[in-house]
Amino acid sequence: MTTSLWRNRDFMVLWSGRTLSEVGDAVSLLAIPLLAVTVLDATAVEVGILSATRMVAYLFLSLPAGVWVDRMRKRRVMVVCHLVRAGLVATVAVGAWAGWVTMAHLWIVALLSSVCTVLYETAHQSFLPAVVPGGQLLEANGKLATTYAVSRIAGYSVGGALASALGVARTVGVDALAYLVNAASLLFIRRAEDPPAAAGPRDFRRELAAGLSFVFRHPIMPRLVAASASLNLFSQMIFALAVLYLVRDLRLDEHTVGVVLALTTLGGIGGGLLSARLARLVGSARIIWIAPLGLGWTVLLVPAARPGWGPVAYTVGMAGLGALFAIYNAAAISYRQGVCPPELLGRMTASIRWVIFGVMPVGALAGGLLGSWLGVRPTLWIAAVGVWASGLWLYFSPLRRRRDVPDAAPDATPSPAARERVPVDMAGEATGGGRRG
Questions:
Q1: Is 33 helix (H, G, I), strand (E, B) or coil?
Q2: Mean pLDDT value of segment 190-206
Q3: Cα Rg for the chain, rounded, in angstroms?
Q4: How far is residue 238's CA from residue 232's CA, in Å, rounded to a whole number?
Q5: Is 226 helix (H, G, I), strand (E, B) or coil?
Q6: Short-list 366, 382, 357, 367, CA closest to 54
Q7: Best CA proximity match to 410, nearest among 218, 225, 226, 279
Q8: Exposure string (b/e) for 153-175, b if CB count within 10 Å is 16 or more?
Q9: Four-residue CA torsion sign, 161, 166, 172, 178
Protein backbone atom coordinates (compact mmCIF):
# COMPACT_ATOMS: atom_id res chain seq x y z
CA MET A 1 0.00 0.00 0.00
CA THR A 2 1.35 3.42 -1.01
CA THR A 3 1.94 5.89 1.82
CA SER A 4 0.18 9.25 1.51
CA LEU A 5 2.42 12.12 0.47
CA TRP A 6 1.27 13.90 3.63
CA ARG A 7 3.09 11.17 5.59
CA ASN A 8 6.14 11.11 3.34
CA ARG A 9 8.56 12.99 5.56
CA ASP A 10 11.19 13.55 2.90
CA PHE A 11 8.68 14.96 0.42
CA MET A 12 7.27 17.27 3.10
CA VAL A 13 10.77 18.57 3.88
CA LEU A 14 11.47 19.08 0.16
CA TRP A 15 8.08 20.72 -0.34
CA SER A 16 8.27 23.08 2.65
CA GLY A 17 11.78 24.24 1.77
CA ARG A 18 10.75 24.84 -1.80
CA THR A 19 7.75 26.84 -0.60
CA LEU A 20 9.91 29.19 1.43
CA SER A 21 12.37 29.83 -1.39
CA GLU A 22 9.47 30.47 -3.79
CA VAL A 23 8.15 33.13 -1.40
CA GLY A 24 11.55 34.79 -1.44
CA ASP A 25 11.66 34.53 -5.23
CA ALA A 26 8.30 36.28 -5.49
CA VAL A 27 9.54 39.12 -3.29
CA SER A 28 12.51 39.62 -5.62
CA LEU A 29 10.43 39.26 -8.77
CA LEU A 30 8.34 42.19 -7.54
CA ALA A 31 10.98 44.28 -5.77
CA ILE A 32 13.75 44.20 -8.38
CA PRO A 33 11.57 45.34 -11.33
CA LEU A 34 10.01 47.96 -9.04
CA LEU A 35 13.53 49.10 -8.18
CA ALA A 36 14.30 49.37 -11.90
CA VAL A 37 11.08 51.20 -12.81
CA THR A 38 10.58 53.52 -9.84
CA VAL A 39 14.17 54.23 -8.70
CA LEU A 40 16.28 53.78 -11.85
CA ASP A 41 13.51 54.98 -14.24
CA ALA A 42 14.03 51.98 -16.56
CA THR A 43 12.58 51.97 -20.07
CA ALA A 44 10.54 49.15 -21.61
CA VAL A 45 13.66 47.86 -23.36
CA GLU A 46 15.71 47.90 -20.13
CA VAL A 47 12.95 46.06 -18.28
CA GLY A 48 12.80 43.51 -21.11
CA ILE A 49 16.56 42.99 -20.90
CA LEU A 50 16.29 42.51 -17.13
CA SER A 51 13.66 39.80 -17.61
CA ALA A 52 15.70 38.20 -20.39
CA THR A 53 18.92 38.01 -18.39
CA ARG A 54 17.07 36.16 -15.62
CA MET A 55 16.54 33.29 -18.06
CA VAL A 56 19.32 33.56 -20.63
CA ALA A 57 21.33 30.71 -19.07
CA TYR A 58 18.73 28.26 -20.37
CA LEU A 59 20.02 28.98 -23.88
CA PHE A 60 23.65 28.05 -23.28
CA LEU A 61 23.65 25.93 -20.10
CA SER A 62 20.58 23.66 -20.13
CA LEU A 63 22.09 20.85 -22.21
CA PRO A 64 25.44 20.51 -20.40
CA ALA A 65 23.59 20.95 -17.10
CA GLY A 66 21.74 17.70 -17.75
CA VAL A 67 24.99 15.79 -18.24
CA TRP A 68 26.60 17.36 -15.17
CA VAL A 69 23.57 16.75 -12.95
CA ASP A 70 23.38 13.08 -13.99
CA ARG A 71 27.01 12.75 -12.91
CA MET A 72 26.53 14.35 -9.47
CA ARG A 73 24.45 14.06 -6.32
CA LYS A 74 21.32 16.07 -7.04
CA ARG A 75 20.80 17.29 -3.48
CA ARG A 76 24.33 18.64 -3.27
CA VAL A 77 23.81 20.60 -6.49
CA MET A 78 20.61 22.12 -5.09
CA VAL A 79 22.26 23.21 -1.82
CA VAL A 80 25.21 24.89 -3.55
CA CYS A 81 22.92 26.72 -5.99
CA HIS A 82 20.84 28.13 -3.14
CA LEU A 83 23.92 29.40 -1.30
CA VAL A 84 25.25 31.16 -4.39
CA ARG A 85 21.87 32.72 -5.19
CA ALA A 86 21.62 34.01 -1.61
CA GLY A 87 24.93 35.84 -2.03
CA LEU A 88 23.94 37.35 -5.38
CA VAL A 89 20.61 38.70 -4.15
CA ALA A 90 22.34 40.12 -1.06
CA THR A 91 24.55 42.30 -3.28
CA VAL A 92 21.43 43.92 -4.77
CA ALA A 93 20.01 44.60 -1.31
CA VAL A 94 23.26 46.17 -0.13
CA GLY A 95 23.72 48.14 -3.35
CA ALA A 96 20.17 49.47 -3.27
CA TRP A 97 20.49 50.46 0.41
CA ALA A 98 23.86 52.18 -0.21
CA GLY A 99 22.64 53.93 -3.35
CA TRP A 100 25.14 52.55 -5.87
CA VAL A 101 22.95 49.96 -7.61
CA THR A 102 22.64 50.36 -11.40
CA MET A 103 20.83 48.59 -14.22
CA ALA A 104 24.13 46.93 -15.19
CA HIS A 105 24.39 45.54 -11.64
CA LEU A 106 20.85 44.16 -11.84
CA TRP A 107 21.55 42.58 -15.23
CA ILE A 108 24.74 40.86 -13.98
CA VAL A 109 23.04 39.50 -10.87
CA ALA A 110 20.11 38.27 -12.98
CA LEU A 111 22.48 36.54 -15.39
CA LEU A 112 24.48 34.75 -12.69
CA SER A 113 21.30 33.82 -10.84
CA SER A 114 19.95 32.27 -14.02
CA VAL A 115 22.96 29.93 -14.11
CA CYS A 116 22.12 28.71 -10.61
CA THR A 117 18.44 28.40 -11.50
CA VAL A 118 19.16 26.13 -14.47
CA LEU A 119 21.32 23.79 -12.39
CA TYR A 120 18.91 23.81 -9.44
CA GLU A 121 15.75 23.14 -11.46
CA THR A 122 17.38 20.35 -13.47
CA ALA A 123 18.55 18.70 -10.25
CA HIS A 124 15.18 19.21 -8.52
CA GLN A 125 13.11 17.55 -11.24
CA SER A 126 15.62 14.68 -11.39
CA PHE A 127 15.67 14.35 -7.57
CA LEU A 128 11.88 14.23 -7.08
CA PRO A 129 11.45 10.63 -8.40
CA ALA A 130 13.98 9.52 -5.77
CA VAL A 131 11.74 10.91 -3.01
CA VAL A 132 8.27 10.14 -4.40
CA PRO A 133 7.00 6.77 -5.72
CA GLY A 134 6.27 6.78 -9.46
CA GLY A 135 2.51 6.42 -8.98
CA GLN A 136 2.44 9.65 -6.93
CA LEU A 137 4.45 11.87 -9.27
CA LEU A 138 1.34 13.56 -10.71
CA GLU A 139 0.07 14.33 -7.21
CA ALA A 140 3.50 15.56 -6.10
CA ASN A 141 3.89 17.82 -9.13
CA GLY A 142 0.37 19.13 -8.53
CA LYS A 143 1.29 20.01 -4.95
CA LEU A 144 4.45 21.75 -6.14
CA ALA A 145 2.40 23.74 -8.65
CA THR A 146 0.04 24.76 -5.85
CA THR A 147 3.04 25.70 -3.72
CA TYR A 148 4.31 27.92 -6.51
CA ALA A 149 1.00 29.78 -6.66
CA VAL A 150 0.58 30.10 -2.89
CA SER A 151 4.15 31.31 -2.58
CA ARG A 152 3.52 33.95 -5.21
CA ILE A 153 0.55 35.25 -3.20
CA ALA A 154 2.61 35.44 -0.01
CA GLY A 155 5.68 36.83 -1.76
CA TYR A 156 3.90 39.48 -3.80
CA SER A 157 1.76 40.54 -0.84
CA VAL A 158 4.73 40.72 1.52
CA GLY A 159 6.91 42.31 -1.15
CA GLY A 160 4.32 44.97 -1.99
CA ALA A 161 3.74 45.81 1.66
CA LEU A 162 7.47 45.94 2.47
CA ALA A 163 8.25 48.01 -0.62
CA SER A 164 5.54 50.48 0.36
CA ALA A 165 6.58 50.62 4.03
CA LEU A 166 10.35 50.22 3.90
CA GLY A 167 11.22 50.94 0.27
CA VAL A 168 12.39 48.51 -2.38
CA ALA A 169 16.01 48.72 -1.21
CA ARG A 170 15.40 46.84 2.05
CA THR A 171 12.84 44.47 0.58
CA VAL A 172 15.20 42.58 -1.74
CA GLY A 173 17.19 41.03 1.11
CA VAL A 174 14.26 38.80 2.14
CA ASP A 175 14.99 36.49 -0.81
CA ALA A 176 18.59 35.92 0.33
CA LEU A 177 17.39 34.69 3.73
CA ALA A 178 14.84 32.37 2.11
CA TYR A 179 17.55 30.75 -0.04
CA LEU A 180 19.71 30.12 3.02
CA VAL A 181 16.88 28.45 4.94
CA ASN A 182 15.94 26.25 1.98
CA ALA A 183 19.56 25.14 1.54
CA ALA A 184 19.62 24.09 5.19
CA SER A 185 16.28 22.23 4.92
CA LEU A 186 17.58 20.00 2.12
CA LEU A 187 20.11 18.51 4.54
CA PHE A 188 17.25 17.00 6.59
CA ILE A 189 16.03 14.69 3.82
CA ARG A 190 16.71 11.13 4.97
CA ARG A 191 16.17 9.21 1.76
CA ALA A 192 19.51 8.03 0.41
CA GLU A 193 19.96 9.20 -3.15
CA ASP A 194 21.16 6.60 -5.64
CA PRO A 195 24.80 7.25 -6.53
CA PRO A 196 25.50 8.54 -10.05
CA ALA A 197 26.09 5.77 -12.56
CA ALA A 198 29.78 4.91 -12.89
CA ALA A 199 29.93 3.81 -16.50
CA GLY A 200 33.63 3.86 -17.29
CA PRO A 201 35.18 6.65 -19.35
CA ARG A 202 32.96 9.69 -19.79
CA ASP A 203 31.98 10.80 -23.29
CA PHE A 204 30.32 14.18 -22.89
CA ARG A 205 28.99 14.46 -26.44
CA ARG A 206 27.60 10.93 -26.42
CA GLU A 207 25.87 11.46 -23.05
CA LEU A 208 24.45 14.75 -24.31
CA ALA A 209 23.20 13.14 -27.52
CA ALA A 210 21.48 10.36 -25.56
CA GLY A 211 19.18 12.84 -23.84
CA LEU A 212 18.40 14.78 -27.03
CA SER A 213 17.80 11.59 -28.99
CA PHE A 214 15.41 10.22 -26.38
CA VAL A 215 13.33 13.40 -26.50
CA PHE A 216 13.21 14.07 -30.23
CA ARG A 217 12.77 10.45 -31.38
CA HIS A 218 9.84 10.03 -29.02
CA PRO A 219 6.40 10.05 -30.73
CA ILE A 220 4.83 12.59 -28.34
CA MET A 221 7.56 14.71 -26.76
CA PRO A 222 8.49 16.88 -29.78
CA ARG A 223 4.91 18.24 -29.93
CA LEU A 224 4.91 18.61 -26.16
CA VAL A 225 8.13 20.61 -26.42
CA ALA A 226 6.69 22.84 -29.17
CA ALA A 227 3.55 23.58 -27.14
CA SER A 228 5.51 24.34 -23.98
CA ALA A 229 7.95 26.55 -25.88
CA SER A 230 5.11 28.55 -27.48
CA LEU A 231 3.38 28.94 -24.13
CA ASN A 232 6.59 30.16 -22.48
CA LEU A 233 7.53 32.49 -25.33
CA PHE A 234 4.27 34.43 -25.34
CA SER A 235 3.69 34.38 -21.58
CA GLN A 236 7.14 35.87 -21.01
CA MET A 237 6.20 38.79 -23.24
CA ILE A 238 3.39 39.45 -20.75
CA PHE A 239 5.48 38.90 -17.62
CA ALA A 240 8.29 41.16 -18.89
CA LEU A 241 5.90 44.10 -19.24
CA ALA A 242 3.70 43.38 -16.21
CA VAL A 243 5.08 45.87 -13.69
CA LEU A 244 5.54 48.55 -16.35
CA TYR A 245 1.96 48.03 -17.58
CA LEU A 246 0.47 48.14 -14.09
CA VAL A 247 2.41 51.23 -13.01
CA ARG A 248 2.28 53.35 -16.16
CA ASP A 249 -0.81 52.18 -18.09
CA LEU A 250 -3.16 51.18 -15.26
CA ARG A 251 -1.66 53.81 -12.92
CA LEU A 252 -1.28 51.68 -9.78
CA ASP A 253 1.02 52.38 -6.82
CA GLU A 254 3.58 49.91 -5.45
CA HIS A 255 1.31 48.42 -2.79
CA THR A 256 -1.58 47.91 -5.22
CA VAL A 257 0.77 46.32 -7.75
CA GLY A 258 1.77 43.79 -5.09
CA VAL A 259 -1.86 43.07 -4.22
CA VAL A 260 -2.86 42.60 -7.87
CA LEU A 261 0.08 40.29 -8.58
CA ALA A 262 -0.72 38.31 -5.44
CA LEU A 263 -4.36 37.85 -6.47
CA THR A 264 -3.39 36.66 -9.95
CA THR A 265 -1.80 33.61 -8.37
CA LEU A 266 -5.14 32.34 -7.06
CA GLY A 267 -5.64 30.64 -10.41
CA GLY A 268 -2.43 28.71 -9.93
CA ILE A 269 -3.58 27.54 -6.50
CA GLY A 270 -6.89 26.28 -7.87
CA GLY A 271 -5.20 24.66 -10.85
CA GLY A 272 -2.62 22.94 -8.67
CA LEU A 273 -5.22 21.62 -6.24
CA LEU A 274 -7.44 20.32 -9.05
CA SER A 275 -4.77 19.09 -11.47
CA ALA A 276 -4.74 15.43 -10.36
CA ARG A 277 -8.55 15.29 -10.06
CA LEU A 278 -9.06 16.85 -13.50
CA ALA A 279 -6.53 14.45 -15.02
CA ARG A 280 -8.51 11.50 -13.66
CA LEU A 281 -11.85 12.98 -14.75
CA VAL A 282 -10.93 14.24 -18.22
CA GLY A 283 -7.97 11.98 -18.94
CA SER A 284 -4.30 12.49 -18.23
CA ALA A 285 -3.57 12.86 -21.96
CA ARG A 286 -6.53 15.06 -22.84
CA ILE A 287 -5.88 17.50 -20.00
CA ILE A 288 -2.49 18.39 -21.50
CA TRP A 289 -4.08 20.03 -24.56
CA ILE A 290 -7.39 21.02 -22.98
CA ALA A 291 -5.63 23.26 -20.42
CA PRO A 292 -4.18 25.81 -22.90
CA LEU A 293 -7.16 25.79 -25.26
CA GLY A 294 -9.75 25.87 -22.47
CA LEU A 295 -8.07 28.51 -20.29
CA GLY A 296 -5.80 30.45 -22.65
CA TRP A 297 -8.60 32.71 -23.88
CA THR A 298 -8.85 34.34 -20.44
CA VAL A 299 -5.48 36.03 -21.03
CA LEU A 300 -7.20 38.29 -23.59
CA LEU A 301 -8.58 40.20 -20.59
CA VAL A 302 -5.07 41.48 -19.81
CA PRO A 303 -4.63 43.83 -22.81
CA ALA A 304 -8.33 44.75 -22.58
CA ALA A 305 -7.81 46.28 -19.12
CA ARG A 306 -8.17 50.04 -18.64
CA PRO A 307 -7.52 52.40 -15.69
CA GLY A 308 -10.24 52.13 -13.07
CA TRP A 309 -11.77 48.70 -13.62
CA GLY A 310 -8.63 47.39 -15.33
CA PRO A 311 -7.01 45.73 -12.30
CA VAL A 312 -10.00 43.35 -12.05
CA ALA A 313 -9.71 42.32 -15.72
CA TYR A 314 -5.94 41.97 -15.38
CA THR A 315 -6.30 39.83 -12.26
CA VAL A 316 -8.86 37.47 -13.84
CA GLY A 317 -6.83 37.11 -17.02
CA MET A 318 -3.57 36.37 -15.25
CA ALA A 319 -5.33 34.03 -12.79
CA GLY A 320 -6.51 32.06 -15.82
CA LEU A 321 -2.93 31.90 -17.05
CA GLY A 322 -1.81 30.68 -13.63
CA ALA A 323 -4.42 27.90 -13.64
CA LEU A 324 -3.33 26.95 -17.15
CA PHE A 325 0.31 26.66 -16.09
CA ALA A 326 -0.49 24.63 -12.96
CA ILE A 327 -2.70 22.08 -14.72
CA TYR A 328 -0.58 21.80 -17.84
CA ASN A 329 2.77 21.56 -16.05
CA ALA A 330 1.61 18.93 -13.54
CA ALA A 331 0.39 16.67 -16.34
CA ALA A 332 3.23 17.32 -18.81
CA ILE A 333 6.07 16.99 -16.28
CA SER A 334 4.56 13.82 -14.77
CA TYR A 335 4.31 12.32 -18.24
CA ARG A 336 7.94 13.11 -18.99
CA GLN A 337 9.14 11.72 -15.66
CA GLY A 338 7.05 8.59 -16.09
CA VAL A 339 8.26 7.56 -19.53
CA CYS A 340 11.96 8.34 -19.07
CA PRO A 341 14.50 5.78 -17.76
CA PRO A 342 15.98 6.94 -14.42
CA GLU A 343 19.56 7.33 -15.68
CA LEU A 344 18.39 9.69 -18.44
CA LEU A 345 16.18 11.90 -16.24
CA GLY A 346 18.70 14.74 -15.91
CA ARG A 347 19.54 14.81 -19.61
CA MET A 348 15.91 14.41 -20.68
CA THR A 349 14.88 17.26 -18.37
CA ALA A 350 17.76 19.45 -19.55
CA SER A 351 17.10 18.72 -23.24
CA ILE A 352 13.47 19.79 -22.93
CA ARG A 353 14.23 22.80 -20.74
CA TRP A 354 16.91 23.93 -23.18
CA VAL A 355 14.16 24.49 -25.72
CA ILE A 356 11.14 25.48 -23.64
CA PHE A 357 13.06 27.73 -21.25
CA GLY A 358 15.55 28.86 -23.88
CA VAL A 359 12.77 30.76 -25.62
CA MET A 360 11.87 32.63 -22.42
CA PRO A 361 14.62 35.30 -22.64
CA VAL A 362 13.72 35.68 -26.30
CA GLY A 363 10.10 36.27 -25.30
CA ALA A 364 11.06 38.74 -22.56
CA LEU A 365 13.35 40.67 -24.89
CA ALA A 366 10.76 40.60 -27.68
CA GLY A 367 8.18 41.93 -25.22
CA GLY A 368 10.44 44.85 -24.32
CA LEU A 369 11.34 45.66 -27.94
CA LEU A 370 7.78 45.35 -29.25
CA GLY A 371 6.51 47.29 -26.25
CA SER A 372 8.85 50.13 -27.17
CA TRP A 373 8.03 49.92 -30.90
CA LEU A 374 4.31 49.10 -31.05
CA GLY A 375 3.32 50.08 -27.53
CA VAL A 376 2.75 47.97 -24.43
CA ARG A 377 -0.95 47.25 -25.04
CA PRO A 378 -0.63 46.04 -28.68
CA THR A 379 2.25 43.80 -27.61
CA LEU A 380 0.07 42.27 -24.89
CA TRP A 381 -2.66 41.53 -27.48
CA ILE A 382 -0.16 39.60 -29.61
CA ALA A 383 1.10 37.68 -26.59
CA ALA A 384 -2.39 36.79 -25.34
CA VAL A 385 -3.41 35.28 -28.68
CA GLY A 386 -0.13 33.34 -28.78
CA VAL A 387 -0.76 31.85 -25.33
CA TRP A 388 -4.11 30.41 -26.42
CA ALA A 389 -2.79 29.13 -29.76
CA SER A 390 0.00 27.14 -28.07
CA GLY A 391 -2.50 24.35 -27.36
CA LEU A 392 -2.97 23.72 -31.09
CA TRP A 393 0.41 21.94 -31.21
CA LEU A 394 -1.06 19.17 -29.05
CA TYR A 395 -4.60 19.25 -30.44
CA PHE A 396 -3.21 18.36 -33.87
CA SER A 397 -1.03 15.54 -32.53
CA PRO A 398 -1.38 11.83 -31.65
CA LEU A 399 -2.06 12.91 -28.05
CA ARG A 400 -5.57 14.12 -29.03
CA ARG A 401 -6.67 10.55 -29.80
CA ARG A 402 -5.77 9.32 -26.32
CA ARG A 403 -7.62 9.67 -23.07
CA ASP A 404 -4.70 8.79 -20.80
CA VAL A 405 -0.95 8.65 -21.07
CA PRO A 406 0.76 5.33 -20.28
CA ASP A 407 1.90 4.56 -16.75
CA ALA A 408 5.24 3.17 -17.93
CA ALA A 409 7.35 3.85 -20.98
CA PRO A 410 5.85 1.96 -23.93
CA ASP A 411 5.92 5.13 -26.05
CA ALA A 412 9.57 5.78 -25.44
CA THR A 413 12.06 5.23 -28.22
CA PRO A 414 15.44 5.34 -26.50
CA SER A 415 18.52 6.23 -28.49
CA PRO A 416 21.09 3.52 -29.19
CA ALA A 417 23.36 5.10 -26.58
CA ALA A 418 20.60 4.91 -23.99
CA ARG A 419 19.79 1.28 -24.82
CA GLU A 420 23.34 0.23 -24.04
CA ARG A 421 22.92 1.38 -20.45
CA VAL A 422 19.25 0.54 -19.75
CA PRO A 423 18.48 -3.03 -18.64
CA VAL A 424 15.69 -4.46 -20.81
CA ASP A 425 13.14 -7.04 -19.76
CA MET A 426 11.45 -9.67 -21.95
CA ALA A 427 8.76 -7.21 -23.07
CA GLY A 428 11.39 -4.90 -24.54
CA GLU A 429 10.74 -2.02 -22.14
CA ALA A 430 13.24 -0.38 -19.82
CA THR A 431 13.04 -2.22 -16.54
CA GLY A 432 10.99 -0.22 -14.10
CA GLY A 433 9.58 1.96 -16.89
CA GLY A 434 11.48 4.94 -15.58
CA ARG A 435 9.47 4.88 -12.36
CA ARG A 436 11.18 4.67 -9.02
CA GLY A 437 9.70 3.77 -5.66
A1: helix
A2: 65
A3: 21
A4: 10
A5: helix
A6: 357
A7: 218
A8: bbbbbbbbbbbbeebbbebbbbb
A9: negative
Query: In this structure, is the dihedral angle defined by the CA atoms of residues 342, 343, 348 and 350, taken in order, positive or negative?
Result: positive
**Backbone phi, then psi, for 424, in 5-degree steps?**
-115, 135
Rounded Cα gap, residues 240 and 360, in angstroms? 10
295 sits in which H/E element = helix 286-295
Span 65-96, pLDDT tens digits: 777 777 778 888 889 998 998 899 888 888 88
Residue 420 banded pLDDT, cuts 50, 70, 90? very low
Q: Does residue 424 sit in helix, strand or coil?
A: strand
Q: What is the identity of the amino acid at 374?
A: L
330: left (phi over 0), alpha (psi -120 to 50) or beta: alpha
Which one, of 321, 255, 316, 268, lies nearest residue 30 by Cα?
Answer: 255
Q: What is the DSSP letter of 250?
A: S
Under 8 Å between Cβ of 169 and 40: no
pLDDT tier, 149 (very low <50, low <70, confident <90, very high otherwise): low
Cα dihedral 382→236→404→397 (10° resolution)? 50
Q: What are 430's strand-pairing partners?
A: 424
- Bridge partners of residue 424, in order along the sequence: 430
| Segment 18-48, tens digit of pLDDT | 877 788 777 877 888 888 887 788 888 888 8
Q: Worst-scoring range by mean pLDDT, 96-100, 164-168, 286-290?
A: 164-168
The whole-chain average pLDDT of the chain stands at: 78
302 Cβ contact list (under 8 Å, min separation 6): 238, 313, 314, 317, 318, 380, 384
User: Rounded mean pLDDT of 193-200?
Assistant: 60
Contacts of 73 (CB under 8 A, 6+ apart): 193, 195, 196
Question: Is-contact 301 316, C-beta < 8 A?
Answer: yes
Nearest in space to 436 (alpha carbons), one of 343, 352, 347, 373? 343
Rounded to 5°, the CA angle 237-163-37 comes to: 40
Longest pairwise C-alpha distance within the chain? 67
Mean of pLDDT values over 325-338 = 81
Is residue 350's pLDDT more than 70?
A: yes
Report how far residue 411's alpha carbon sits from residue 417's, in angstroms, rounded to the nearest whole number. 17
pLDDT over 80 (residue 101)? yes
Distance from C-alpha of 299 to C-alpha of 377, rounded to nearest angstrom:
13
